[in-house]
């Protein structure tokens, strides 16, 4: 499987690319700065120079030509204010969806944000704008004709992955390692039966493959 990753230089994207390659798949994606190409190459991850904010839909489609799936893991991360959040977190996923449709790539996994159980917290206006843009991106992808999966990870850590998660339509919030988010994405990409659904993932006690199996077959978990 060849996967085109937006955010390949980021915390989840880099781990995802390495995990895909370790499995025997291919991963590639655009990076904004030339030095990032060398940094990723040092870890065995290929990339191209480009920026989803400035690339046209046609340019993105050409860059992903031959891919079997696309993954959007990018985020403004609070940098650049509301305008950057709107452009990257809100508009970026739609642009990638349009490019995927043009390139004939149907499988699309969007890394979104936070299980709904996390939303009892009172947050500032900037964070609420971030949440608004993430939900906007989800809604637009759901309305697309693509073979989409939306994954909402809980608060992220750089702890080593455990290979264990809680995954489902609604989860109680607890932190999750970026390693485990990346591993979950890899297995979801290889689970075509998981399609057109929104899943929440947190740190947990179920082996990732078993958790994914239970999404489509609830009896799988107890086997």
From TrEMBL:
Listed transmembrane segments: none
All copies of domain NAD(P)-binding, residue ranges: 7-192
Origin superkingdom: Bacteria
Record protein name field: NAD-dependent dehydratase
Upper lineage: Bacteria, Pseudomonadati, Pseudomonadota, Gammaproteobacteria, Oceanospirillales
């Amino acid at each position: 499987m060849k996967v085109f990753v937006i955010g390949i230089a980021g915390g989840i994207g880099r781990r995802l690319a390495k995990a895909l390659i370790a499995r025997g798949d291919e991963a590639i994606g655009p990076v904004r700065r030339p030095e990032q190409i060398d940094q990723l190459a040092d870890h065995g991850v290929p990339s191209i120079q480009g920026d989803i904010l400035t690339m046209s839909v046609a340019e993105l489609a050409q860059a992903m030509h031959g891919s079997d799936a696309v993954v959007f893991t990018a985020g403004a991360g609070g940098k650049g204010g509301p305008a950057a959040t709107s452009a990257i977190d809100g508009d970026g996923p739609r642009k990638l969806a349009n490019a995927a449709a043009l390139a004939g790539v149907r499988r699309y996994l969007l890394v979104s944000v936070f299980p709904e159980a996390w939303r009892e917290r009172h947050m500032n206006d900037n964070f609420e704008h971030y949440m608004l843009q993430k939900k906007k991106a989800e809604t637009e992808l759901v309305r697309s004709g693509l073979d989409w999966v939306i994954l909402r990870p809980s608060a992220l850590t750089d702890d080593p992955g455990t290979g264990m998660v809680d995954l489902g339509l609604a989860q109680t919030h607890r932190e999750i390692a970026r390693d485990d988010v990346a591993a979950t994405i890899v297995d979801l990409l290889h689970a075509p039966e998981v399609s057109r659904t929104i899943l929440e993932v947190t740190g947990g006690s179920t082996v990732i493959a078993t958790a994914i199996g239970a999404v489509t077959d609830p009896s799988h978990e107890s086997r």
